[in-house]
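To fix ideas, we give here one paired sequence and structure record:
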Amino acid sequence: MAITLVNPSGLPEIGAYRQVSVATGSKLVFVAGQVARDADGATVGAGDLVAQVEQCYLNIGTALAAVGGTFDDVAKLTVYVVDWTPDKMPLFLEGVARAAAALGTTPVPPGTLVGVAALDVPDHLVEVEATAVLGS
């Protein structure tokens, strides 16, 4: 595996992700921001943050699989959430947990969550982009 996730001593442990990832592979993969669209382009879970987070993570998984990767290869995630407030964290984490169950992994690489005013279309509540490193 090209990615090792670490919670260094001296930094707080955050259950939702690890603070550091160490990449040792040779192939960088940049996955464009994924929104809650299915394979046909239809929005999934209009108005439902949990369903949309799940779909975004599943789409990242699909993109990675297409190039021979999995969530275990992700070095960093960036998540954009419309009208973010801290009270939405349980919904966000539920969506991640549902995706993790479907993907058979726990997607906890270092990440950044950014609150934004809007995304590409009004129905989209979240967008997730990933950087991964594959071993070859």
